[in-house]
Amino acid sequence: MRGRRWTLSVAVGALLLATAGCGGGDDDPRPGADGSPGAVTGTVTVLAAASLTESFTRIGAAFEAANPGVTVTFSFAGSSQLAQQITAGAPADVFAAASPATMKTVTDAGDNAAEPQVFVRNQLVIAVAKGNPKGITGLADLTKPDTKVALCAEQVPCGAAAKTALDAAGTALTPVTLEQDVKQALSKVRLGEVDAALVYRTDARAAAADVDGIEFPESAGAVNDYPIVTLKQAPNSAGAAAFVAYVLGAEARAVLTEAGFQTP
Amino acid sequence: MPTSAKTAGTGPVARLRRGRTRRGSAGVPVALAVPALLGLGFLVLPLAGLLIRTPWTSLPQRLTAPGVLEALRLSLVTATAATLLCLLLGVPLAWLLARTTFPGRRLVRALVTVPLVLPPVVGGVALLLVFGRRGLIGGWLDETFGITLPFTTTGVVLAEAFVAMPFLVIAVEGALRGADARYEEAAATLGAGRWTAFRRVTLPLVAPGIAAGAVLCWARALGEFGATITFAGNFPGRTQTMPLAVYLALEQDLEAAIVLSLVLLVVSVAILASLRDRWITSP
């Protein structure tokens, strides 16, 4: 009889355990409506690197204004995660990656509808809290024992670039955390949990209210090219082509330059 | 939740069982059988998919890769430490909820269960705001003792305990409510104080309930992802637990992610099986 009560509580517990969610999931992008050839209508689903969040959001709004009847939906995350989603068959129209290596994952799988085109380049800076309280001037300052540093994981482009820059400088740096994408690394600086993070110049600029970006010479050897491509399984291939053309055009260029991206 | 019914012949469970013996295994209506089988398939197929895609040939070398063992060791250590922390704090809390009356007890019970329904990432953010370097408590810890919790193994334990403790509290509270309070009253009439009665009578009485709660708590802690990655970050050997390793492996190497997932699946199933054998028995 007592055993039965435990059975109940354990069963309830097991149910709770089973329903306990786990974070970190990503919503699948919604497939767009089919656009009839030639006309740009419906939804264009764009998977873009986290570092493109601010500039692509603005470009998307401008693209919608220029093409009434079109909705652009974005999914911003680490490039390699997005590449995985595409090779797993996520129904997306456009992929914009933060490195040729992550784009290669998609092209190797044959998921691209056209040749990827590099549309911007980006360079690393050291993001520090506003006013630079630790007085960080270069990579060497990051190795001090009382300085906590966040890097991106090597699997994502900002982490690969950081490794290249650190290796070039001969700096042996032990970070406290390896974040999943560049925005996560930046948010650790914003929260004050770390003293510095290696992020893109554009990210530091987008967060200028909270962080300062410290330029360092070694970043010149670790410049990232950003390729963009239309996808083979695109539900809205006309919209995909139109969006990529728009990103390569003059209006988008102005937005990207203002965000701190370099022209390839 | 267990009912407060005192006799064996009433209560929903007994009624259910009587009904079952009356009806036996009569024909199952199609309207129930089809969705039931669909539901079962929905729950079992993904696990089967994991097994089907497992690279069995390269499994041994993948399992012994240094990163995998490191993550597994860290996961086991932190989940165990989190469970111990939950036992230390959770059992007294459950006793308080089950055996005492105080104003606002219902509110306290509701608060205890909040981490169950809170998205773990939100829990991680909340932990950062309290225990982070600029947090309410974390700031003071940092200034006074130079202790920082985020990005440390201690941080992982805290994140896991925060998410898993409600399981233990609910299970133990249920066991306490189900246990006969008259034994404790008898102990009190024989001169035992409340602490003695708790230690010598109540604890042995509800030990199976505590054990079951602890196992569930441990399993939940083992699978914790969101709060951990938000609060403790991701660093191999220090804060990179198995779920984090799975997530990162997905970025590069699907097979490695499958192998890591398989390890977690095996551990989880073993836990549930041990629970079944020991506590979920049909009387």
UniProtKB/TrEMBL annotation, chain A:
Keywords of the record: Metal-binding, Molybdenum, Signal
Keyword flag Transmembrane: no
Name of the featured protein: Molybdate-binding protein
Gene source species: Polymorphospora rubra
GO molecular function (one): metal ion binding
Signal peptide range: 1-23
GO annotation, biological process: molybdate ion transport
Superkingdom of the source species: Bacteria
SUPFAM superfamilies given in the database record: Periplasmic binding protein-like II
Classification via Gene3D superfamilies: Periplasmic binding protein-like II
Binding positions (molybdate): 51, 79, 182, 200
NCBIfam families for the chain: modA (TIGR01256)
Taxonomic lineage: Bacteria, Bacillati, Actinomycetota, Actinomycetes, Micromonosporales
Keyword Metal-binding recorded: yes
Recorded family membership: Belongs to the bacterial solute-binding protein ModA family.
Automatic annotation (TrEMBL), chain B:
Pfam families tied to this protein: BPD_transp_1
Taxonomy, superkingdom: Bacteria
Primary site of residence: membrane
PROSITE patterns in alphabetical order: ABC_TM1
Membrane topology type: Multi-pass membrane protein
Keywords from the named record: Cell membrane, Membrane, Molybdenum, Transmembrane, Transmembrane helix, Transport
GO cellular component terms attached to this protein's record: plasma membrane
Transmembrane segments: 26-52, 72-98, 110-131, 151-172, 201-221, 256-275
CDD domains noted in UniProt: TM_PBP2 (cd06261)
InterPro entries registered for this protein in UniProt: MetI-like, MetI-like_sf, ModB_ABC, NifC_ABC_porter
Subcellular location as annotated: Cell membrane
MF term (GO), any: molybdate ion transmembrane transporter activity
Entry keyword Transport: yes
ABC transmembrane type-1 domain span: 72-273
Function recorded in the entry: Part of the binding-protein-dependent transport system for molybdenum; probably responsible for the translocation of the substrate across the membrane.
UniProt family annotation: Belongs to the binding-protein-dependent transport system permease family. CysTW subfamily.
PANTHER family the record matches: MOLYBDENUM TRANSPORT SYSTEM PERMEASE PROTEIN MODB
Name the UniProt record assigns to this protein: Molybdenum transport system permease
